Amino acid sequence: MKLLRQTPPDPQQLALQLDFFSSGYSSQPAVDQPAPKHVPGSAAQAPREPLELFPSPTPSANPAAPGTRRRVQLHEHMLEYRLLRSKRRTIGFLIDDGGLRITAPKWVTVVEIENAIREKQRWIFAKLVERRERSARRLQPQMQWRDGATLPYLGVDVTLRIMTAQATGIAHDKQARELTVCLPPDAGEQQLKDRVQGWLQLEARRVFAERLPVYAEKLGVSYRQFALSSATTQWGSCTADGKIRLNWRLIHFALPLIDYVIAHELAHLREMNHSPRFWATVQSVFPEFVAAKKALRDHAPETLPAF
Predict the structure, then answer these.
(1) Among 63, 171, 213, 230, which has the minimal tally of Cβ within 10 Å of its Cβ?
(2) DSSP alpha helices (H): ranges in the chain?
(3) What pLDDT, on the 0 to 100 scale, is given for residue 165?
(4) Among residues 55, 39, 33, which one has the least CA distance to residue 118?
(5) Domain identity same for 116 and 154
(6) Mean pLDDT of all residues in 127-139
(7) Domain with 212 in it: what CATH number?
(8) Same domain, yes or no: 198 and 299
(9) Which pLDDT tens digit goes with each residue over 160-217?
(10) Name one Pfam family in it (predicted).
(11) Are 62 and 129 in contact (CB under 8 A)?
(12) Residue 25 within a domain
């Protein structure tokens, strides 16, 4: 989530947005660690690198990625990383498509860098696992727009049923978990997508309109208006003057996740920041916010139907 500011700042236009992923789905955030203090001549006096710290001979998932490839033993794990030297003053950690990338000052020794890696190894391994799982989801086959296909709606899969008819229409059978779409005989795939997307957006507007007043009352706040969003990177946003925008794709998720986003955005009307007081405000009306936040972050956009 990020705080957007205009120049000059306008309190009425201040907007806080809830991102698809707190770190952004294209890359993990860089983490900085203070570099050891530089003592003149220390680089020349540093111990030689252990023999096991050598550039990896194995092919990389991204051979074009910059940096010298090295490996370091972390207990039973052998971790490969890319080392880049720069004029920066801190040691930076970044997880990207090429794995772990370390950016460090030119005067910091490899031994000092790998001591920093050991200190951060829990974070590193957690982010590498997240990245691998996200990549695996991207490789899953895309939805086929045909009779019998399924798509998520309010946290459950509904089956598409396509009927040929001159009149167009769409009907949802909640008990059978089926969505019947009537289309002309010559209708193409895009017409089917348009009909389903239109229905989902109507459902999103209906559900959001029902849930917003519930959490506004719990928080003791008033919002001026709400609108659907088709943003590619945010689930929702809130401005200081009470305008709420909610991504219609939230209708794919179970109601508790929708409620979390709504509670999150409305809580900004009491705390226009992401301070501890803000999260305490969210927790006061949505105690399970940590699990909901993680569940949303774990759902990459590419796992949702493409319209």
Answers:
(1) 63
(2) 42-45, 110-119, 121-138, 189-219, 255-267, 276-285, 289-298
(3) 79
(4) 33
(5) no
(6) 72
(7) 3.30.2010.10
(8) yes
(9) 999 987 677 899 999 999 999 999 888 888 999 999 999 999 999 999 999 999 999 9
(10) YgjP-like
(11) no
(12) no
Same domain, 162 and 258: yes
Q: What is the mean pLDDT of the chain?
A: 80
Q: Return phi, psi of residue 235, to 5°.
A: -85, -30
Tell me how far apart the alpha carbons of residues 113 and 109 are, in angstroms, rounded to a whole number.
6
- Listing DSSP states for 107-167 in one string gives TS-HHHHHHHHHHTHHHHHHHHHHHHHHHHHHTSPPPP-STT-EEEETTEEEEEEEEE-SS
List of residues 6+ apart from 244 with CB closer than 8 A: 212, 223, 225, 226, 227, 236, 237, 238, 265, 266
Of 39-48, 204-213, 265-274, minimum mean pLDDT range:
39-48
* Confidence grade of residue 304 (pLDDT, cut at 50, 70, 90): confident
Could you tell me which of 291, 250, 278 has the C-alpha nearest to residue 152?
A: 250
Task: Measure the CA–CA gap between 14 and 5, rounded to whole angstroms.
Answer: 6
Is there a single domain that holds both residue 155 and residue 285? Answer: yes
Tell me: do 287 and 255 sit in the same domain: yes
Same domain, yes or no: 52 and 167: no
Domain with 130 in it: 35-138
- Check whether residue 112 and residue 218 sit in a common domain: no
Domain boundary (115, 138, 161) is at 138
Distance, CA of 96 to CA of 101 (rounded, Å): 7
Indicate whether 271 belongs to any domain. yes
Q: pTM for the complete prediction?
A: 0.63
pLDDT of residue 48 exceeding 60, the answer is: no
Mean pLDDT of 281-285: 96
144 lies in a domain?
A: no
Identify the pLDDT of residue 30: 58
